[in-house]
Amino acid sequence: MTEITLAKVAEITGGVLIGDGARRICGVCSPNEPRSDMLCVVWEKNMLEGIPGNIAVLGEKGSIKGRDGVELDRPRAALVSLLPLFDRRRGDSPGIHGRAFVHENSIIGEDAAIGPGCVVSDGAVIGRRVVLQANVFIGKNVIVGDDTRIEASTAIQDFVKIGSRVTIHSGVSIGCDGFGFVPGDDGRWNKIPQIGTVVIGDDVEIGANTTIDRATFGVTEISDGVKLGVHIHIAHNCSLGPDCMLVGFIPVGGSSKLGRHVLAAGMSGIADHIVIGDNVTIAGRSGVSKDIKSGLTVSGFPAQEHMAEKRYQASLRRIKSYGERLKKIERFIRSIAAGFGKEDI
Question: What's the confidence (pLDDT) of residue 344?
Fold first, then answer.
């Protein structure tokens, strides 16, 4: 079990120590389940109410009084450097498991860990300190960069290139065929061979059960720093610019191009052949059916500028009241018409 002092926490996070710096903690806990042997992370001052005074706290500046803890401007951001100290999952021992298959023509980097049931195919290159958990398939001539971690039951198909410090969660499929068919003269669907590849940059994270299709020809590209959530589908020949974030349950249609730092919220969707500029935000459940210029926030289906969508939604809510007003006007007109013997109006 890892234990560190509060003084060390302050040093690692760049925070200000309050109280006993020699106090030792063995983990991090939430305000809902405070423990005296752990550090309780509190995002806002009002969350301190109800937390016993004997609990050490990581909180905003000026929030900690009469207890041990560490104060800093952004407590949540401190988790980036703090939580890895207590991560018990990173205990993979270097070496090749006896029940793994590693082709004699592959190259395995120093201190790589290859788990049971893994297949490393002909010509594959596995970088230094790479971790392949159980039942990972690495196809022919695949390149995996240093310090990349690929979790269980993931398939990386032939000729895919993966950068360094990439995290790929369980059940991901990279380099499967893109969905390409054309109708023949007989009306049956003919498959278009998918002979391209996928290139994934450095510092990318790919969520569980996400699928990235190989290009029909050329490259499906995931640039440096991209973060993909669970159950995302990136179709063939797409290009995602640096530091894009797609949250979860999002399809991206074939040949679409996303600029730098595009943020797509959960269950949104992007049609094929769409071009999205830099720093665009796509609200949840939006459907993008046309190009979007840089810097915009869009929402709705089909997606449009967020303020325009809000005005549209507000107008829909007013339709009921408009209908009631029209009925009153109609009754008023009928009453006037009745006075002139015009009952059929």
Answer: 60
Using an 8 Å Cβ cutoff, are 175 and 150 in contact? no
What pLDDT digit, counting tens, does each position of 232-290 carry?
Answer: 999 999 999 999 999 999 999 999 999 999 999 999 999 999 999 999 999 999 999 99
pLDDT number for residue 260 = 98
Comparing C-alpha atoms, which of 51, 50, 48, 78 is closest to residue 62?
Answer: 48
- How many Å apart are CA 102 and CA 195, to the nearest integer? 25
Tell me which CATH homologous superfamily contains domain 4-86.
MurE/MurF, N-terminal domain (3.40.1390.10)
CATH 2.160.10.10, domain 95-305, yes or no: yes
Span 85-94, pLDDT tens digits: 888 776 678 9
From the list 97, 231, 233, 236, the catalytic residue is 236
Contact assessment for residue 9 and residue 58, using Cβ atoms and an 8 Å cutoff: yes
Residue 236 known to be catalytic: yes
